[in-house]
Amino acid sequence: MPWRIDVDRETCVGSGMCTAIASNRFVLVADRARAVDATVEPDEAVLDAAESCPMEAIVVRDEAGRVLAPER
Amino acid sequence: MTTGQQPRTYPFGEADRLRLHPTYAELRRSEPVTRVRLPHGGDGWLATRYTDVRTVLSDPRFSRAATVGADVPRTTPLVSRDTNILTMDPPDHTRLRKLVAKAFTARRTEMLRPRAEKIVGDLLDAVEAQGPPVDLIEALALPLPITLICEMLGVPVEDRVDFRRWSDKALALTAFAPEEIVAAVEDLRDYIAGLVAQRREHPTDDVLGTLVQARDEGDRLTEAELVNFGVTLLVAGHETTANQIGNFVYTLLTEPEHLAALRTTPDLVPAAVEELLRIVPLGGAAGFARIATEDVEIGGVTVPAGDAVLVSMPSANRDDAVFTHPELIDFRRETNPHIAFGHGVHHCVGAQLARMELQVALSALLQRFPALELAAPVEEIVFKKGRLVRGLASLPVRW
How many alpha carbons lie under 13 Å from residue A57 in its C-beta half-sphere? Predict the structure, then answer.
């Protein structure tokens, strides 16, 4: 049941939060975050990254498209 | 590259107003990661380039937790024994940070903008009523962030005289005796513990109430973590922004060209806030050492496991590898990826709140007082000394 990661690079401020929490899942490219792979196997660290992003620029969804993080 | 050489004495000198010591620029050019000797805790490394600073701040091989209770290089005689959000590594840090992250997102912060505008409006009414000269630190810079963080946390703003006094001491390096600093932190803890106890009687939905609930119902943090978190949020939630409001207004009033640009083009305020965040060094000197948990190659040197590393964010923010003409103030930079709020997991949780407060304060001030100017010769404007952050003792203005 893979998850989908979307990073809104327009909203991202490049805080480095996600790349530090889940360094194998996110990378900074031109000072903005990007998912290393848009589709990943379930991984708590990805949820942590989405919950901790100050801009709420990361959205994690399950296969059915339900938002897993961030909580609103 | 510095093998066999004496480490440099650090800090390079007492913080001089808002100037950055020229040695940082020298080091960025020739010795980006260099040995330094601090007044306490011995020797460590200092990183000054943007890319290295960002690496130290975000690479998990550099630990904050390893500094707790350790005799690490530092500018204060006190060894920090506190475990708080600033001295934790993931996953503990993540566990705590997530509990409050929601309250400080850009979206939630933006919802507070009208409230911030109202607070500033009222404060500036009082300034007008009082008439010149007015000290903007007491009249605007302190009360705005204090009122907002109190409302968010659920701390009674009427208690500000007490917690201001404690907070001022808690952020001192040498301005007070070590035992006074320790006592002030203890007072802050007792104070927050009292508010926590109240919430157990009468639950609230403010940030402190949320943390109490997370402890009592979810067991998601310990009692000590809860109290220390409250203290950190209260202190960090106003000292930094209050000092920067003063520092930014001082900078604008002493740089007429940039002040004029903002007056003719008020839409520039958000970009101006970012540029002032980049150029105005809030920290007096690098602190918050990190310990390398393994040998790490950085900036052309190998930092051995167990060594302490300091980073200068103000220096990183003036790195010409990233910023064109970094010593110049330019409100129209195409990109401004400054790291004034840090980088990585410790990136300031209140960054969006601080940005919003700074924007509201500057906008309202310039709009209300088009002829605002210093009410004393610039050399008579005094900065506080011996503290973690730079800030004015008072900022007398007239209009």
Answer: 22
